[in-house]
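[SOLVED] Predicted holo structure with adenosine-5'-triphosphate

Edit: marking solved, answer below. Original request kept for reference. I posted the sequence and ligand SMILES and asked for the 3D complex as structure tokens.
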Amino acid sequence: MITVHSVNLSFAHNGATLPVLRDISFHLESEDYCAIIGPSGCGKTSLLFLLAGLLQPDSGTIDITGSPRSGTILQNFGLFPWKTVSQNIALGLVLQKRPPHEVRRRVDSLLEEMGLSGFGEHFPGQLSGGMQQRVALARALAIEPDILFMDEPLSSLDALTRERLQNLIVDIRQAKGISTVLVTHSIEEAVFLGRTIIVLSGRPGRVLQIIDNPDADTDNFRQSDTFFQRCIAVRQILAGEVDGPHA
Ligand SMILES: Nc1ncnc2c1ncn2[C@@H]1O[C@H](COP(=O)(O)OP(=O)(O)OP(=O)(O)O)[C@@H](O)[C@H]1O
């Protein structure tokens, strides 16, 4: 469970203060699937970093119940090009000093689960974008996280590869009971993957609206009328055609 209350964030830039996030408040239940969407530069990545504990707010609070183990997938995959696929996937486990036989077992099972069997000794540069993304996903899953933070994980992929990986994310979180927080530019992706969709304004990012999207993850949602209606609703909020409760 994550509760964000009246969070403000700014960066110092060229001697001036750049306000990035203003008065952000929301609440996520455990095993929620959250999508954060907003215009470029509105502070989405900064908000994800705050949630992941990689940044601290200027004011306000972020309370996370328990001590969930978190995995993070950064923009552009964040793989080490000089390490093999297996070594990349093993990274978190090695840092946790897990025994080598356990690391090998987890890596082999994730290679299979992600459809990467036979590519363990390849380097990231020898793989397609979709495969690299699956390596990044496997690396984040290796430590068996309770919550997965993802920063535009699929943005550089072609449309069909992107859809396949969106489906894979759905399968994984259903099978493993993982909460996800996803930053995306894509309205369709936010609606497909976000059960709670947080729509931010331009910088400094404020919450324009929080949309409850309970149909995310249900069968055939992508083809349903509800899906298209929600996409239109999110587009209207982003375009300023509808005032949200916090606008
Ligand atoms: N470490 C930093 N120091 C100074 N300014 C920063 C820093 N990180 C981000 N910013 C600025 O904060 C603003 C928000 O950046 P952020 O990356 O959070 O936005 P975003 O919504 O994720 O952008 P995009 O959609 O383009 O990826 C931008 O104007 C950016 O230049």
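OP edit: Residues 11, 13, 18, 20, 38, 40-46, 185, 203 surround adenosine-5'-triphosphate (CB under 6 Å). Thanks to everyone who chimed in.
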